[in-house]
Amino acid sequence: MAAIKVVLRDARLRAKGIPSKVRQWIQSFMDSREASITSDDFETAILPLENAGLAHGSPLSPILFGFFNSDLVDQPVDFNGGASAFIDDCFRWRAGPSAEANLKKIQNEDIPRIEAWARQTGSSFATEKTELIHLTRNKKEHSVGQIIMNGKFIKPANTAKLLGAIFDKEMRWKDHVQQAVNRATKVNIALGGLRHLRPEQIRQNKREVNTAC
């Protein structure tokens, strides 16, 4: 999220019609930040954060990042496709008569636009984290084609994770349900192990874990 700091932040906000006083307040929010780490009765020294970017956990951060990537996702959402983003998770989808037709539009129209936006803003996309998936009940379409982004080939995957949800090719949601079951099982086991502990034992275990880390 430090990407918004390295671009012309004030010019971008001004182009969106943000008043001068608000831009000054945003600059104050983002600059000259310090931090320390606290655990129980231990606290580190307060140190400055260089190139901190946007603060994690602040409700203002998603709004500001929306201004940053608005040019990337500002396009119609209709029966032919659309685009959206949350913080630095961007996704583009195409709907058409075949996987091959969708891939052609993604490769010839969408990827050039994405790469141009990255050059203009000084951003970069992690190709190793970029996923391609065909959502269809037609099994013959599941592994059709590939796309090229930043000179690297990306082939269709069996599943794709988006904002915590696991999409499978046929939209059966079995993988997503299994993920939820696994997480619930782990939490249940962990809680079961705490039921016989006294409060002072829990605090001691927490300190031991922090020391080990």
UniProtKB/TrEMBL annotation:
Superkingdom to which the source organism belongs: Eukaryota
InterPro entries cross-referenced by the UniProt entry: RT_dom
Residue ranges occupied by any Reverse transcriptase domain in the UniProt entry: 1-148
Name the UniProt record assigns to this protein: Reverse transcriptase domain-containing protein
